[in-house]
Design brief:
With 163 residues, the protein is of the alpha/beta class. The chain is 44% helix and 25% strand. The strands form two sheets. A seven-stranded mixed beta sheet has the order 1-2-3-4-5-7-9, with helices on both faces. The protein has a two-stranded parallel ribbon with strand order 6-8. Helix 4 packs across helix 5.
Length: 163
Protein backbone atom coordinates (compact mmCIF):
# COMPACT_ATOMS: atom_id res chain seq x y z
CA UNK A 1 0.00 0.00 0.00
CA UNK A 2 2.80 2.42 0.90
CA UNK A 3 4.56 1.74 -2.43
CA UNK A 4 1.36 2.52 -4.33
CA UNK A 5 0.96 5.82 -2.47
CA UNK A 6 4.52 6.83 -3.28
CA UNK A 7 4.00 5.87 -6.93
CA UNK A 8 0.79 7.93 -7.19
CA UNK A 9 2.46 10.89 -5.49
CA UNK A 10 5.40 10.75 -7.88
CA UNK A 11 3.07 10.51 -10.87
CA UNK A 12 1.06 13.51 -9.64
CA UNK A 13 4.20 15.59 -9.13
CA UNK A 14 5.48 14.70 -12.61
CA UNK A 15 2.09 15.50 -14.16
CA UNK A 16 2.00 18.90 -12.44
CA UNK A 17 5.55 19.70 -13.52
CA UNK A 18 4.72 18.78 -17.12
CA UNK A 19 1.62 21.01 -17.05
CA UNK A 20 3.71 23.85 -15.59
CA UNK A 21 6.43 23.43 -18.23
CA UNK A 22 3.96 24.16 -21.02
CA UNK A 23 2.04 26.91 -19.25
CA UNK A 24 2.35 30.61 -20.02
CA UNK A 25 0.33 33.27 -18.26
CA UNK A 26 -0.28 36.62 -19.96
CA UNK A 27 -1.11 39.55 -17.73
CA UNK A 28 -1.04 43.32 -17.83
CA UNK A 29 1.24 45.13 -15.43
CA UNK A 30 -1.82 46.08 -13.37
CA UNK A 31 -3.05 42.48 -13.20
CA UNK A 32 0.39 41.29 -12.12
CA UNK A 33 0.23 43.55 -9.06
CA UNK A 34 -2.99 41.88 -7.94
CA UNK A 35 -2.16 38.20 -8.46
CA UNK A 36 -0.87 35.78 -5.82
CA UNK A 37 2.84 35.21 -6.52
CA UNK A 38 3.00 31.65 -5.18
CA UNK A 39 0.15 30.47 -7.37
CA UNK A 40 1.64 32.18 -10.40
CA UNK A 41 5.14 30.77 -9.90
CA UNK A 42 3.94 27.24 -9.10
CA UNK A 43 1.54 26.87 -12.00
CA UNK A 44 3.40 28.56 -14.88
CA UNK A 45 6.86 28.44 -16.41
CA UNK A 46 6.49 31.57 -18.54
CA UNK A 47 5.16 35.03 -17.79
CA UNK A 48 4.19 37.51 -20.50
CA UNK A 49 3.52 41.01 -19.24
CA UNK A 50 1.91 43.39 -21.71
CA UNK A 51 1.29 47.13 -21.46
CA UNK A 52 4.66 47.74 -19.80
CA UNK A 53 5.43 51.43 -19.38
CA UNK A 54 8.72 53.34 -19.07
CA UNK A 55 8.56 53.96 -15.30
CA UNK A 56 8.20 50.21 -14.71
CA UNK A 57 11.12 49.47 -17.04
CA UNK A 58 13.28 52.02 -15.22
CA UNK A 59 12.37 50.46 -11.88
CA UNK A 60 13.15 46.99 -13.23
CA UNK A 61 16.52 48.16 -14.49
CA UNK A 62 17.35 49.76 -11.14
CA UNK A 63 15.97 46.84 -9.09
CA UNK A 64 13.68 49.29 -7.32
CA UNK A 65 11.73 47.55 -4.56
CA UNK A 66 9.11 50.29 -4.22
CA UNK A 67 7.14 49.06 -7.25
CA UNK A 68 5.14 45.88 -6.63
CA UNK A 69 5.12 44.91 -10.31
CA UNK A 70 8.90 45.28 -10.62
CA UNK A 71 9.37 43.17 -7.50
CA UNK A 72 7.04 40.48 -8.91
CA UNK A 73 8.99 40.36 -12.17
CA UNK A 74 12.29 40.02 -10.31
CA UNK A 75 10.78 37.27 -8.17
CA UNK A 76 9.51 35.48 -11.28
CA UNK A 77 13.04 35.56 -12.69
CA UNK A 78 14.40 34.27 -9.38
CA UNK A 79 11.93 31.36 -9.52
CA UNK A 80 13.16 30.49 -13.00
CA UNK A 81 10.21 31.72 -15.04
CA UNK A 82 10.84 32.96 -18.56
CA UNK A 83 9.64 36.55 -18.62
CA UNK A 84 8.62 38.43 -21.76
CA UNK A 85 7.66 42.09 -21.67
CA UNK A 86 5.59 43.78 -24.38
CA UNK A 87 6.48 47.42 -24.92
CA UNK A 88 4.82 49.85 -27.30
CA UNK A 89 7.06 50.48 -30.29
CA UNK A 90 7.02 54.23 -29.75
CA UNK A 91 8.64 53.70 -26.32
CA UNK A 92 11.57 51.64 -27.61
CA UNK A 93 13.96 54.58 -28.15
CA UNK A 94 13.56 55.53 -24.49
CA UNK A 95 14.48 52.12 -23.04
CA UNK A 96 17.42 51.96 -20.63
CA UNK A 97 19.21 49.52 -22.94
CA UNK A 98 22.40 48.82 -20.99
CA UNK A 99 20.65 48.18 -17.69
CA UNK A 100 17.80 46.10 -19.09
CA UNK A 101 20.13 44.00 -21.25
CA UNK A 102 21.72 42.64 -18.05
CA UNK A 103 18.44 41.01 -17.04
CA UNK A 104 17.28 37.69 -18.55
CA UNK A 105 14.18 39.24 -20.11
CA UNK A 106 12.66 38.82 -23.55
CA UNK A 107 11.00 41.80 -25.22
CA UNK A 108 8.43 42.27 -27.94
CA UNK A 109 6.43 45.16 -29.30
CA UNK A 110 2.65 45.42 -29.02
CA UNK A 111 2.26 43.45 -32.27
CA UNK A 112 4.40 40.57 -31.00
CA UNK A 113 7.52 41.32 -33.04
CA UNK A 114 10.71 40.39 -31.22
CA UNK A 115 12.78 43.22 -29.76
CA UNK A 116 16.47 42.69 -29.03
CA UNK A 117 18.54 45.04 -26.93
CA UNK A 118 22.10 45.69 -28.13
CA UNK A 119 23.97 47.34 -25.24
CA UNK A 120 27.46 47.51 -26.75
CA UNK A 121 29.00 50.45 -28.57
CA UNK A 122 29.51 48.76 -31.95
CA UNK A 123 27.08 47.00 -34.26
CA UNK A 124 28.93 44.90 -36.80
CA UNK A 125 27.88 42.62 -39.63
CA UNK A 126 28.48 39.60 -37.35
CA UNK A 127 25.86 40.94 -34.91
CA UNK A 128 23.26 41.40 -37.65
CA UNK A 129 24.00 38.30 -39.77
CA UNK A 130 22.64 35.85 -37.19
CA UNK A 131 19.39 37.71 -36.53
CA UNK A 132 15.96 37.09 -38.05
CA UNK A 133 13.56 39.96 -38.74
CA UNK A 134 13.54 41.86 -35.43
CA UNK A 135 13.53 45.29 -33.88
CA UNK A 136 17.07 45.98 -32.67
CA UNK A 137 17.35 48.69 -30.02
CA UNK A 138 20.83 50.16 -29.90
CA UNK A 139 22.66 52.05 -27.20
CA UNK A 140 22.77 55.79 -27.98
CA UNK A 141 26.54 55.79 -28.55
CA UNK A 142 26.51 52.70 -30.75
CA UNK A 143 28.48 52.98 -33.99
CA UNK A 144 26.91 51.04 -36.86
CA UNK A 145 29.23 49.71 -39.54
CA UNK A 146 28.18 50.20 -43.15
CA UNK A 147 28.05 46.46 -43.74
CA UNK A 148 25.84 46.01 -40.65
CA UNK A 149 23.46 48.74 -41.84
CA UNK A 150 23.18 47.12 -45.30
CA UNK A 151 22.65 43.67 -43.83
CA UNK A 152 19.97 45.01 -41.49
CA UNK A 153 18.17 46.55 -44.44
CA UNK A 154 18.19 43.34 -46.47
CA UNK A 155 17.13 41.18 -43.49
CA UNK A 156 14.25 43.47 -42.48
CA UNK A 157 15.90 44.33 -39.16
CA UNK A 158 14.74 47.70 -37.87
CA UNK A 159 17.46 49.62 -36.06
CA UNK A 160 16.22 51.89 -33.28
CA UNK A 161 18.75 54.08 -31.54
CA UNK A 162 18.23 55.01 -27.89
CA UNK A 163 17.40 58.67 -27.37
Amino acid sequence: MNGELVQRTVEEVVARLLRRADSTVTLSAAQLREIDARTLFCQHSSLHVHQVDLPLLEQLAQNDSSNTTAVMIHEALAFGLRVQLSVQRRLLPALPVKKLARLPLAFSDELGQTVILHPVNLLSYADVARLPSVLLVLHRQCVITTLAREAAGTRNIHLIKQE
